[in-house]
């Protein structure tokens, strides 16, 4: 049986320039979980329908289960939930989720909070309709959506009163090599 050729790739992951050699069919989700041990993004459906695998690619949320790792370019910036651990806006979002009881089993939450983060970066004071729209690609089977939507509204209000930067793209990653 012939061995599969590995494709060399280079991109920014959570602010660090990384390199890997990947098989042609490996997804970004598989790459970040297996090779880089970043396990917040989950594989829920493998079809891009549940949003549990949401990460940011060049400041846009994507389903990492659909993105082939080999298609990443050196200029691409991938941010996982782990990469936002110290981000003040993400901390505010996470606290709001906990305060509103929006977390139950936790499987969908990494994808949900990544969508919440993108929403609040691009729409610091979102309407209820925007909150629903920005989370429409994320499925939750435990909580329903009312508590999640309330948590996002609470996070937006808290971010506004604390003077946290909002609007525009996510902060630029550090230029380091792993």
TrEMBL record:
Locate the region Disordered. Answer: 159-178
Protein name per its UniProtKB record: Xanthine dehydrogenase iron-sulfur subunit
Q: Which PANTHER family match?
A: OXIDOREDUCTASE WITH IRON-SULFUR SUBUNIT (PTHR44379)
InterPro entries with a match to the protein in the record? 2Fe-2S-bd (IPR002888), 2Fe-2S-bd_dom_sf (IPR036884), 2Fe-2S_ferredoxin-like_sf (IPR036010), 2Fe-2S_ferredoxin-type (IPR001041), 2Fe2S_fd_BS (IPR006058), Beta-grasp_dom_sf (IPR012675), Diverse_Oxidoreductases (IPR051452)
Keywords, comma-separated and alphabetical: 2Fe-2S, Iron, Iron-sulfur, Metal-binding, Oxidoreductase
- The UniProt record lists the keyword DNA repair: no
Checking Gene3D superfamilies in the record gives:
3.10.20.30, [2Fe-2S]-binding domain
Where's the 2Fe-2S ferredoxin-type domain? 7-84
UniProt-recorded Gene Ontology molecular function terms? 2 iron, 2 sulfur cluster binding; metal ion binding; oxidoreductase activity
UniProt biased composition (Low complexity): 159-169
